[in-house]
Protein backbone atom coordinates (compact mmCIF):
# COMPACT_ATOMS: atom_id res chain seq x y z
CA UNK A 1 0.00 0.00 0.00
CA UNK A 2 1.20 3.48 -0.89
CA UNK A 3 1.31 5.90 2.04
CA UNK A 4 0.13 9.43 1.36
CA UNK A 5 2.73 12.12 2.01
CA UNK A 6 3.27 15.51 0.37
CA UNK A 7 6.23 14.02 -1.56
CA UNK A 8 4.43 10.88 -2.78
CA UNK A 9 0.75 11.44 -3.58
CA UNK A 10 -1.26 8.36 -2.71
CA UNK A 11 -2.77 6.31 -5.50
CA UNK A 12 -6.05 6.21 -3.66
CA UNK A 13 -5.96 10.00 -3.53
CA UNK A 14 -5.40 10.30 -7.27
CA UNK A 15 -8.09 7.76 -8.11
CA UNK A 16 -10.72 10.02 -6.61
CA UNK A 17 -9.90 12.88 -9.00
CA UNK A 18 -11.90 13.50 -12.17
CA UNK A 19 -9.11 12.59 -14.60
CA UNK A 20 -8.78 9.20 -12.92
CA UNK A 21 -12.52 8.61 -13.14
CA UNK A 22 -12.20 9.15 -16.86
CA UNK A 23 -9.35 6.63 -17.04
CA UNK A 24 -11.31 4.14 -14.93
CA UNK A 25 -14.24 4.37 -17.33
CA UNK A 26 -11.98 4.00 -20.32
CA UNK A 27 -10.25 0.97 -18.85
CA UNK A 28 -13.58 -0.67 -18.00
CA UNK A 29 -14.86 0.06 -21.51
CA UNK A 30 -11.77 -1.47 -23.12
CA UNK A 31 -12.21 -4.64 -21.07
CA UNK A 32 -15.92 -4.96 -21.83
CA UNK A 33 -15.57 -4.17 -25.56
CA UNK A 34 -12.81 -6.79 -25.76
CA UNK A 35 -14.77 -9.50 -23.97
CA UNK A 36 -18.30 -8.76 -25.21
CA UNK A 37 -17.88 -6.89 -28.47
CA UNK A 38 -19.31 -3.48 -29.31
CA UNK A 39 -23.02 -4.30 -29.70
CA UNK A 40 -23.57 -6.00 -26.34
CA UNK A 41 -21.56 -3.55 -24.25
CA UNK A 42 -23.80 -0.93 -22.66
CA UNK A 43 -22.72 2.40 -21.15
CA UNK A 44 -24.47 1.24 -17.96
CA UNK A 45 -22.36 -1.93 -17.76
CA UNK A 46 -19.21 0.12 -18.27
CA UNK A 47 -20.23 2.48 -15.45
CA UNK A 48 -20.92 -0.47 -13.14
CA UNK A 49 -17.56 -2.07 -13.90
CA UNK A 50 -15.75 1.22 -13.36
CA UNK A 51 -17.68 1.81 -10.13
CA UNK A 52 -18.97 5.23 -11.19
CA UNK A 53 -22.36 6.83 -11.63
CA UNK A 54 -23.86 5.99 -15.02
CA UNK A 55 -24.27 9.69 -15.85
CA UNK A 56 -20.49 10.14 -15.87
CA UNK A 57 -20.03 7.99 -18.98
CA UNK A 58 -21.94 10.31 -21.37
CA UNK A 59 -20.52 13.28 -19.41
CA UNK A 60 -16.97 12.30 -20.36
CA UNK A 61 -17.46 10.52 -23.69
CA UNK A 62 -20.74 11.72 -25.18
CA UNK A 63 -22.01 8.42 -26.52
CA UNK A 64 -20.97 4.81 -27.05
CA UNK A 65 -19.11 5.71 -30.23
CA UNK A 66 -17.07 8.33 -28.38
CA UNK A 67 -16.45 5.84 -25.58
CA UNK A 68 -15.18 3.26 -28.08
CA UNK A 69 -12.84 5.75 -29.78
CA UNK A 70 -11.43 6.74 -26.38
CA UNK A 71 -11.18 3.14 -25.14
CA UNK A 72 -9.25 2.14 -28.26
CA UNK A 73 -7.13 5.30 -27.97
CA UNK A 74 -7.92 6.33 -31.53
CA UNK A 75 -6.34 9.76 -32.09
CA UNK A 76 -9.06 10.85 -34.54
CA UNK A 77 -12.78 10.40 -35.02
CA UNK A 78 -13.30 8.95 -38.51
CA UNK A 79 -16.77 10.53 -38.66
CA UNK A 80 -15.26 14.00 -38.12
CA UNK A 81 -12.78 13.33 -40.90
CA UNK A 82 -15.67 12.43 -43.22
CA UNK A 83 -17.70 15.44 -42.07
CA UNK A 84 -14.77 17.74 -42.83
CA UNK A 85 -14.33 16.19 -46.29
CA UNK A 86 -18.06 16.51 -46.98
CA UNK A 87 -17.86 20.31 -46.86
CA UNK A 88 -17.52 21.61 -50.41
CA UNK A 89 -18.78 20.65 -53.88
CA UNK A 90 -19.68 16.99 -54.39
CA UNK A 91 -17.43 16.61 -57.43
CA UNK A 92 -14.41 17.11 -55.16
CA UNK A 93 -15.59 14.79 -52.37
CA UNK A 94 -13.52 11.79 -53.52
CA UNK A 95 -10.31 13.80 -53.57
CA UNK A 96 -11.04 15.40 -50.19
CA UNK A 97 -11.83 12.01 -48.64
CA UNK A 98 -8.67 10.42 -50.04
CA UNK A 99 -6.60 13.42 -48.93
CA UNK A 100 -8.05 13.48 -45.41
CA UNK A 101 -7.67 9.73 -45.01
CA UNK A 102 -4.14 9.34 -46.35
CA UNK A 103 -2.65 12.45 -44.72
CA UNK A 104 -4.07 11.40 -41.35
CA UNK A 105 -2.72 7.84 -41.64
CA UNK A 106 0.66 9.07 -42.85
CA UNK A 107 1.02 11.89 -40.33
CA UNK A 108 3.67 11.52 -37.61
CA UNK A 109 1.10 12.67 -35.00
CA UNK A 110 -1.89 10.41 -35.60
CA UNK A 111 -0.38 7.76 -37.91
CA UNK A 112 1.40 5.50 -35.41
CA UNK A 113 -1.64 5.18 -33.10
CA UNK A 114 -3.96 4.43 -36.05
CA UNK A 115 -1.56 1.89 -37.49
CA UNK A 116 -1.16 0.21 -34.10
CA UNK A 117 -4.92 0.08 -33.70
CA UNK A 118 -5.39 -1.41 -37.18
CA UNK A 119 -2.77 -4.05 -36.50
CA UNK A 120 -4.47 -5.15 -33.28
CA UNK A 121 -7.89 -5.01 -34.98
CA UNK A 122 -6.86 -7.54 -37.61
CA UNK A 123 -4.56 -9.66 -35.44
CA UNK A 124 -6.55 -9.99 -32.23
CA UNK A 125 -9.86 -11.88 -32.38
CA UNK A 126 -11.52 -9.82 -29.66
CA UNK A 127 -10.43 -6.47 -31.04
CA UNK A 128 -11.51 -7.64 -34.50
CA UNK A 129 -15.02 -8.41 -33.33
CA UNK A 130 -15.41 -5.11 -31.51
CA UNK A 131 -14.01 -3.14 -34.45
CA UNK A 132 -16.18 -4.99 -36.98
CA UNK A 133 -19.30 -4.32 -34.95
CA UNK A 134 -18.31 -0.71 -34.30
CA UNK A 135 -17.79 -0.14 -38.04
CA UNK A 136 -21.08 -1.81 -38.96
CA UNK A 137 -23.33 -0.25 -36.34
CA UNK A 138 -22.07 3.28 -35.99
CA UNK A 139 -19.46 4.19 -38.58
CA UNK A 140 -21.16 3.17 -41.84
CA UNK A 141 -24.51 4.87 -41.12
CA UNK A 142 -22.66 7.95 -39.89
CA UNK A 143 -20.35 8.10 -42.90
CA UNK A 144 -23.35 7.67 -45.22
CA UNK A 145 -25.19 10.51 -43.48
CA UNK A 146 -22.19 12.85 -43.28
CA UNK A 147 -21.15 12.32 -46.89
CA UNK A 148 -24.67 12.17 -48.32
CA UNK A 149 -24.16 8.73 -49.89
CA UNK A 150 -25.98 5.39 -49.56
CA UNK A 151 -24.89 2.87 -46.93
CA UNK A 152 -23.93 0.49 -49.75
CA UNK A 153 -21.53 3.08 -51.14
CA UNK A 154 -20.24 3.84 -47.64
CA UNK A 155 -19.58 0.11 -47.26
CA UNK A 156 -17.63 -0.07 -50.52
CA UNK A 157 -15.61 3.07 -49.72
CA UNK A 158 -14.80 1.86 -46.22
CA UNK A 159 -13.60 -1.52 -47.50
CA UNK A 160 -11.53 0.30 -50.15
CA UNK A 161 -9.80 2.57 -47.63
CA UNK A 162 -9.53 -0.17 -45.02
CA UNK A 163 -7.88 -2.30 -47.74
CA UNK A 164 -5.37 0.44 -48.54
CA UNK A 165 -4.54 0.91 -44.86
CA UNK A 166 -4.01 -2.82 -44.34
CA UNK A 167 -1.88 -3.17 -47.47
CA UNK A 168 0.19 -0.07 -46.66
CA UNK A 169 0.60 -0.37 -42.87
CA UNK A 170 0.02 -4.01 -41.89
CA UNK A 171 1.26 -6.03 -44.88
CA UNK A 172 3.65 -3.27 -45.99
CA UNK A 173 3.18 -4.39 -49.60
CA UNK A 174 5.77 -2.55 -51.73
CA UNK A 175 3.14 -1.44 -54.29
CA UNK A 176 1.46 0.45 -51.44
CA UNK A 177 4.47 1.59 -49.40
CA UNK A 178 6.76 2.83 -52.16
CA UNK A 179 4.26 5.55 -53.13
CA UNK A 180 4.32 8.92 -51.34
CA UNK A 181 1.21 10.29 -49.62
CA UNK A 182 0.61 12.56 -52.63
CA UNK A 183 0.99 9.72 -55.14
CA UNK A 184 -1.52 7.64 -53.16
CA UNK A 185 -3.94 10.59 -53.13
CA UNK A 186 -3.52 11.00 -56.91
CA UNK A 187 -4.33 7.32 -57.43
CA UNK A 188 -7.23 7.05 -54.98
CA UNK A 189 -8.90 10.46 -55.23
CA UNK A 190 -10.45 10.07 -58.72
CA UNK A 191 -11.37 6.42 -58.07
CA UNK A 192 -13.08 7.17 -54.76
CA UNK A 193 -14.96 9.88 -56.69
CA UNK A 194 -15.97 7.33 -59.36
CA UNK A 195 -17.53 5.13 -56.66
CA UNK A 196 -19.37 8.15 -55.22
CA UNK A 197 -20.63 9.16 -58.68
CA UNK A 198 -21.96 5.63 -59.22
CA UNK A 199 -24.13 6.01 -56.09
CA UNK B 1 12.57 -45.55 -37.69
CA UNK B 2 9.89 -47.07 -39.91
CA UNK B 3 10.77 -50.50 -41.26
CA UNK B 4 9.85 -51.16 -44.86
CA UNK B 5 7.48 -54.08 -45.34
CA UNK B 6 4.75 -54.63 -47.97
CA UNK B 7 2.17 -53.67 -45.33
CA UNK B 8 3.88 -50.47 -44.16
CA UNK B 9 5.63 -48.57 -46.94
CA UNK B 10 8.77 -46.92 -45.59
CA UNK B 11 8.92 -43.15 -45.39
CA UNK B 12 12.32 -43.17 -47.01
CA UNK B 13 10.87 -45.17 -49.89
CA UNK B 14 8.05 -42.66 -50.44
CA UNK B 15 10.38 -39.68 -50.29
CA UNK B 16 12.14 -40.88 -53.43
CA UNK B 17 8.92 -40.82 -55.49
CA UNK B 18 7.95 -37.87 -57.70
CA UNK B 19 4.95 -36.78 -55.60
CA UNK B 20 7.21 -36.51 -52.58
CA UNK B 21 9.75 -34.48 -54.51
CA UNK B 22 6.92 -32.06 -55.23
CA UNK B 23 6.08 -31.89 -51.51
CA UNK B 24 9.74 -31.43 -50.60
CA UNK B 25 9.99 -28.47 -52.96
CA UNK B 26 6.78 -26.99 -51.65
CA UNK B 27 7.91 -27.33 -48.05
CA UNK B 28 11.29 -25.76 -48.82
CA UNK B 29 9.54 -22.92 -50.65
CA UNK B 30 7.20 -22.26 -47.75
CA UNK B 31 10.16 -22.05 -45.34
CA UNK B 32 12.17 -19.74 -47.58
CA UNK B 33 9.22 -17.46 -48.44
CA UNK B 34 8.45 -17.19 -44.73
CA UNK B 35 12.01 -16.36 -43.69
CA UNK B 36 13.15 -14.29 -46.68
CA UNK B 37 9.98 -12.92 -48.25
CA UNK B 38 8.91 -13.35 -51.87
CA UNK B 39 11.37 -11.08 -53.66
CA UNK B 40 14.60 -12.53 -52.29
CA UNK B 41 13.61 -16.18 -52.57
CA UNK B 42 14.94 -17.72 -55.80
CA UNK B 43 13.81 -20.97 -57.41
CA UNK B 44 17.46 -22.07 -57.24
CA UNK B 45 17.59 -21.54 -53.46
CA UNK B 46 14.37 -23.53 -53.06
CA UNK B 47 15.82 -26.40 -55.13
CA UNK B 48 19.00 -26.39 -53.04
CA UNK B 49 17.06 -26.46 -49.78
CA UNK B 50 14.82 -29.27 -51.05
CA UNK B 51 17.88 -31.17 -52.29
CA UNK B 52 16.58 -31.51 -55.84
CA UNK B 53 17.78 -30.52 -59.28
CA UNK B 54 16.92 -26.90 -60.05
CA UNK B 55 15.06 -27.92 -63.24
CA UNK B 56 12.45 -29.76 -61.15
CA UNK B 57 11.08 -26.53 -59.64
CA UNK B 58 9.76 -25.05 -62.93
CA UNK B 59 8.85 -28.61 -64.00
CA UNK B 60 6.40 -28.94 -61.11
CA UNK B 61 5.33 -25.33 -60.52
CA UNK B 62 5.94 -23.40 -63.75
CA UNK B 63 7.32 -20.21 -62.23
CA UNK B 64 7.88 -18.46 -58.93
CA UNK B 65 4.27 -17.31 -58.80
CA UNK B 66 3.02 -20.89 -59.22
CA UNK B 67 5.49 -22.02 -56.58
CA UNK B 68 4.20 -19.40 -54.15
CA UNK B 69 0.54 -20.34 -54.75
CA UNK B 70 1.39 -24.01 -54.15
CA UNK B 71 3.57 -23.28 -51.11
CA UNK B 72 0.76 -21.25 -49.54
CA UNK B 73 -1.75 -23.95 -50.51
CA UNK B 74 -3.96 -21.43 -52.29
CA UNK B 75 -6.76 -23.38 -53.95
CA UNK B 76 -7.08 -20.93 -56.84
CA UNK B 77 -4.83 -18.74 -58.94
CA UNK B 78 -6.13 -15.15 -58.65
CA UNK B 79 -4.68 -14.35 -62.08
CA UNK B 80 -6.78 -17.12 -63.67
CA UNK B 81 -9.86 -15.76 -61.94
CA UNK B 82 -9.14 -12.33 -63.41
CA UNK B 83 -8.37 -13.82 -66.85
CA UNK B 84 -11.72 -15.64 -66.81
CA UNK B 85 -13.56 -12.45 -65.80
CA UNK B 86 -11.76 -10.48 -68.54
CA UNK B 87 -13.45 -12.55 -71.26
CA UNK B 88 -16.51 -10.64 -72.49
CA UNK B 89 -17.48 -7.01 -73.02
CA UNK B 90 -15.68 -4.43 -70.91
CA UNK B 91 -18.91 -2.89 -69.59
CA UNK B 92 -19.59 -6.16 -67.72
CA UNK B 93 -16.05 -6.62 -66.36
CA UNK B 94 -16.83 -5.14 -62.93
CA UNK B 95 -19.76 -7.47 -62.39
CA UNK B 96 -17.82 -10.51 -63.62
CA UNK B 97 -14.86 -9.65 -61.36
CA UNK B 98 -17.10 -9.17 -58.31
CA UNK B 99 -18.99 -12.38 -59.10
CA UNK B 100 -15.83 -14.45 -59.61
CA UNK B 101 -14.22 -13.05 -56.49
CA UNK B 102 -17.17 -13.35 -54.11
CA UNK B 103 -18.39 -16.77 -55.28
CA UNK B 104 -14.87 -18.18 -54.95
CA UNK B 105 -14.39 -16.77 -51.44
CA UNK B 106 -17.85 -17.91 -50.36
CA UNK B 107 -17.66 -21.37 -51.91
CA UNK B 108 -17.46 -24.37 -49.56
CA UNK B 109 -14.65 -25.82 -51.72
CA UNK B 110 -12.16 -22.97 -52.03
CA UNK B 111 -13.45 -20.55 -49.37
CA UNK B 112 -12.01 -22.06 -46.19
CA UNK B 113 -8.47 -22.36 -47.59
CA UNK B 114 -8.57 -18.78 -48.90
CA UNK B 115 -9.93 -17.44 -45.64
CA UNK B 116 -7.28 -19.36 -43.66
CA UNK B 117 -4.59 -17.96 -45.93
CA UNK B 118 -5.88 -14.40 -45.56
CA UNK B 119 -5.98 -14.72 -41.80
CA UNK B 120 -2.37 -15.89 -41.62
CA UNK B 121 -1.36 -13.21 -44.16
CA UNK B 122 -2.62 -10.40 -41.93
CA UNK B 123 -1.77 -11.97 -38.56
CA UNK B 124 1.68 -13.38 -39.16
CA UNK B 125 4.50 -10.91 -39.87
CA UNK B 126 6.44 -13.26 -42.12
CA UNK B 127 3.42 -14.37 -44.14
CA UNK B 128 2.38 -10.72 -44.42
CA UNK B 129 5.71 -9.72 -45.92
CA UNK B 130 5.72 -12.56 -48.44
CA UNK B 131 2.10 -11.92 -49.42
CA UNK B 132 2.64 -8.17 -49.74
CA UNK B 133 5.66 -8.69 -51.98
CA UNK B 134 3.89 -11.40 -53.98
CA UNK B 135 0.93 -9.08 -54.59
CA UNK B 136 3.15 -6.15 -55.56
CA UNK B 137 5.60 -7.94 -57.82
CA UNK B 138 3.50 -10.49 -59.64
CA UNK B 139 -0.23 -10.11 -59.01
CA UNK B 140 -0.79 -6.43 -59.76
CA UNK B 141 1.09 -6.38 -63.09
CA UNK B 142 -0.64 -9.63 -64.09
CA UNK B 143 -4.10 -8.41 -63.10
CA UNK B 144 -3.50 -5.17 -65.02
CA UNK B 145 -2.41 -7.10 -68.11
CA UNK B 146 -5.19 -9.71 -67.93
CA UNK B 147 -7.96 -7.15 -67.34
CA UNK B 148 -6.56 -4.49 -69.67
CA UNK B 149 -6.41 -1.81 -66.96
CA UNK B 150 -3.62 0.38 -65.56
CA UNK B 151 -1.55 -0.82 -62.62
CA UNK B 152 -2.96 2.08 -60.58
CA UNK B 153 -6.49 0.82 -61.17
CA UNK B 154 -5.39 -2.76 -60.45
CA UNK B 155 -3.96 -1.49 -57.17
CA UNK B 156 -7.21 0.24 -56.21
CA UNK B 157 -9.33 -2.78 -57.18
CA UNK B 158 -7.09 -5.19 -55.29
CA UNK B 159 -7.22 -3.05 -52.13
CA UNK B 160 -11.02 -2.82 -52.53
CA UNK B 161 -11.48 -6.59 -52.80
CA UNK B 162 -8.82 -7.32 -50.20
CA UNK B 163 -10.68 -4.92 -47.89
CA UNK B 164 -13.97 -6.76 -48.46
CA UNK B 165 -12.35 -10.12 -47.80
CA UNK B 166 -10.74 -8.89 -44.57
CA UNK B 167 -13.97 -7.26 -43.36
CA UNK B 168 -16.09 -10.29 -44.26
CA UNK B 169 -13.81 -13.18 -43.26
CA UNK B 170 -11.23 -11.87 -40.76
CA UNK B 171 -13.08 -9.15 -38.83
CA UNK B 172 -16.50 -10.70 -39.53
CA UNK B 173 -18.03 -7.19 -39.47
CA UNK B 174 -21.84 -7.61 -39.49
CA UNK B 175 -22.27 -5.11 -42.35
CA UNK B 176 -20.18 -7.47 -44.48
CA UNK B 177 -21.28 -10.88 -43.14
CA UNK B 178 -25.05 -10.39 -42.98
CA UNK B 179 -25.25 -9.93 -46.77
CA UNK B 180 -25.56 -12.98 -49.03
CA UNK B 181 -23.07 -13.63 -51.82
CA UNK B 182 -25.59 -12.23 -54.33
CA UNK B 183 -26.23 -9.09 -52.28
CA UNK B 184 -22.49 -8.48 -52.06
CA UNK B 185 -22.18 -8.93 -55.83
CA UNK B 186 -25.05 -6.46 -56.38
CA UNK B 187 -23.29 -3.89 -54.17
CA UNK B 188 -19.75 -4.36 -55.49
CA UNK B 189 -20.32 -5.16 -59.19
CA UNK B 190 -21.38 -1.66 -60.35
CA UNK B 191 -18.84 0.05 -58.11
CA UNK B 192 -15.94 -2.10 -59.32
CA UNK B 193 -17.12 -1.19 -62.82
CA UNK B 194 -17.11 2.52 -61.91
CA UNK B 195 -13.45 2.25 -60.88
CA UNK B 196 -12.64 0.44 -64.14
CA UNK B 197 -14.49 3.09 -66.19
CA UNK B 198 -12.47 5.84 -64.45
CA UNK B 199 -9.26 4.21 -65.70
Describe this structure in words.
Two copies of one chain form a homodimer. Chain A contains twelve helices and no strands. The first copy, chain A, has 199 residues and is mainly α. In chain A, helix 2 packs across helix 9 (125-147), helix 6 runs antiparallel to helix 7 (93-106) and helix 6 runs parallel beside helix 9 (125-147). Mean pLDDT of chain A is 89; it is low at 1-15. Chain A binds chain B through residues 121-123, 128-129, 131-133, 135-137, 140, 151-153, 155-156, 158-164, 166-167, 170-176, 187-188, 190-191, 193-195, 197-198, and chain B through 39, 121-123, 128-129, 131-133, 135-137, 140, 151-153, 155-156, 158-164, 166-167, 170-176, 187-188, 190-191, 193-195, 197-198. Chains A, B: This is TetR family transcriptional regulator. Chains A, B: Residues 19-79 form the HTH tetR-type domain. Chains A, B: Residues 1-24 are annotated as: Disordered. Chains A, B: Keywords: DNA-binding. Chains A, B: Residues 42-61 bind DNA.
Task: Please describe the structure with a list of short key phrases separated by commas or semicolons.
homodimer, globular, about 200 residues, disordered N terminus, mainly alpha
Estimated share of beta-strand residues of chain A: under 5%
Task: Please report the distance between the alpha carbons of the first and last residues of chain A.
Answer: 61 Å
* Residue windows where pLDDT falls under 50 for at least 5 positions of chain A: 1-15
Radius of gyration of chain A: 19 Å
Helix percentage range of chain A: over 70%
Oligomer: homodimer
Helix-strand pattern of chain A, N to C?
HHHHHHHHHHHH
Question: Largest chain interface and its two residue counts?
Answer: A-B, 42 and 43 residues
- Put simply, the count of helices of chain A is 12
Whole-number average pLDDT of chain A?
Answer: 89
Please identify the structural class of chain A as seen in this structure: mainly alpha
Strand count, sense and barrel status of the largest sheet of chain A are: none
Envelope shape of chain A: globular
Annotation, overall tally of beta strands of chain A: 0
Keywords (chains A, B): DNA-binding
InterPro entries (chains A, B): Homeodomain-like_sf, HTH-type_TetR-like_transc_reg, HTH_TetR, Tet_transcr_reg_TetR-rel_C_sf, TetR_C_16
Protein name (chains A, B): TetR family transcriptional regulator
Organism (chains A, B): Gordonia caeni
